[in-house]
Write a structure and sequence with these properties.
This protein has 437 residues and is of the alpha+beta class. 30% of the residues lie in helices and 36% in strands. The chain contains six helices and 20 strands. The strands form four sheets. A six-stranded antiparallel beta barrel has the order 2-11-14-13-12-15. It is elongated and about 155 Å long.
Length: 437
């Protein structure tokens, strides 16, 4: 019995060591799980979003050029008016007095003019008969010319007073709808420094426009004639359509952000849209239909190096030699500065190492990318693709090596149980769940 006990101890250690080895090997092979997506066919559209305010295409603010008390108002909110229709009347009492005063001044100037004209005629007759001196004639002529100018001035003052009296009658400048009334009967308006606004008239509410503020980062994508869709809070489930008619050059700075006003023409036959509504605008920049697309995250995926297929060269050399040659090329690339500032640029890491993500960004800028698939050996292989339009979520791709429905790898899920290299069969494993990479 004692001898069997002594022999059983080493055997037990061997069994435990073998079990530990196979457990760790199995854990190493099972520590990576892939997240798959499929290459699909569909539409991708690039859009620019913004917010804007609805308004009528033509809006006129009706004011007054004379001061006085509002004596009468003939229209109210939402009333339809015609051009030259009387919409309000300012008390004309003071203006009528001004007209009479100007008329009296005009008559006085006319009388003085007639008297000086008769005096000039007499002086002319006497001068011709050598009965008056040249000085007397010149004085009569000067008086006549002065009174003639005074008569013209008095007539102009009378006309001005009459025009001001006519301005007391406020008329609609255009056909349209009254969307704002800012005065009431009995209110005094003063037009000393600026013309006060009495009414706001919109020309035609069946034709509206959206004035959208587009950020300077997106304004280069917006062009005249592009199709626009937008929604308003009043009809949240309805999508309205419009067309870009103008991109204004004047910048508008809002909270240190430069914006540009984009004018969008919108039909409004049913008159649901009202001036002042806030519109959430989507400008269609480009749309590609029935193309192959992949999730954008799949193009950004970088697999672990140990999961890649070790490729052999034509001479039959092992993958380690290929990796060594690749490392040598990267070292030479680092010594040459990486093409971007001595190893500190876009293609290199902080210590001169190769930066795969920076290289991927440069390739994407040139319209080149790659997706990853599992080969027959359950190892990852890359497939080069040409990158097209993207909406942020999906990206257009094209390549003779890809087909619709083809499975690609878009991420790696690391199991929590295999995350720690020091785990042993005698340690308690953590709970389920994983983290995405």
């Amino acid at each position: 019995m004692k001898k069997s006990y002594i022999i059983g101890g080493p055997v037990l250690l061997v069994v435990l060591a073998a079990g530990l080895y196979f457990f760790l090997a199995a854990g190493k092979n099972a520590d990576v799980q892939y997240r798959f997506d499929k290459i699909s066919r569909g539409d991708i559209q690039m859009v620019v979003t913004a917010t804007g305010t609805l308004s009528a295409v033509t809006t006129v603010q009706v004011g007054t050029q004379v001061s006085g008390i509002i004596a009468k108002i003939n229209v109210d909110f939402n009333d339809h008016v015609k051009k030259n229709q009387i919409v309000a009347l300012i008390d004309p009492t003071m203006l009528q007095q001004s007209v009479r005063d100007a008329d009296a001044s005009r008559q006085r100037a006319l009388a003085q003019y007639n008297e000086s004209k008769r005096a000039l005629d007499r002086a002319t007759t006497l001068l011709n008969k050598n009965l008056a001196s040249q000085a007397d004639y010149d004085a009569a002529l000067t008086t006549f010319e002065s009174n003639k100018a005074a008569k013209t001035q008095a007539e102009a003052q009378h006309e001005r007073a009459q025009i001001n009296l006519d301005y007391a009658t406020i008329r609609a400048p255009i056909d349209g709808v009254v969307i704002s009334r800012q005065v009431d009967v009995g209110q005094t308006v003063a037009a000393s420094f600026s013309s006060p606004t009495l009414f706001t008239i919109a020309n035609d509410l069946t034709k509206m426009q959206v004035l959208a503020n587009v950020d300077e980062a997106d304004i280069g994508k917006v062009q005249t004639g592009q199709i626009v869709s937008f929604t308003v809070d009043a009809y949240a489930e309805q999508v309205f359509r419009g067309t870009v008619s103008q991109v204004r050059l004047a910048p508008v700075t809002v909270q240190n952000v430069v914006n540009y006003v984009v004018v969008i023409n919108v039909p409004n036959e049913d008159k649901k849209l009202m001036p002042g509504m806030t519109a959430t605008v989507t400008v269609l920049v480009q749309k590609n239909e029935a193309i192959l697309k992949v999730p954008t995250i799949a193009l950004k995926f970088q697999p672990p190096a140990e999961q890649l297929e070790a490729r052999k060269d034509s001479a039959g050399q092992g993958g380690g030699q290929v990796d060594s040659a690749r490392a040598e090329r990267r070292r030479q690339y680092s010594q040459q500065g990486g093409g971007q500032g001595g190893g500190q640029g876009q293609g290199m890491g902080s210590g001169g190492g190769f930066d795969a993500q920076a290289m991927q960004r440069r390739m994407a800028a040139r319209g080149i990318g790659k997706v990853w698939v599992l080969n027959q050996n359950k190892k990852l292989e890359s497939v080069g693709v040409k990158i097209g339009l993207t909406d942020g979520t999906y990206t257009e791709v094209s390549s003779p090596k890809i087909t619709e429905g083809m499975q690609i790898v878009s991420g790696v899920v690391m199991q929590k149980a295999a995350a720690t290299a020091t785990n042993t069969p005698f340690q308690q494993q953590g709970g389920g769940g994983g983290r995405g990479r």
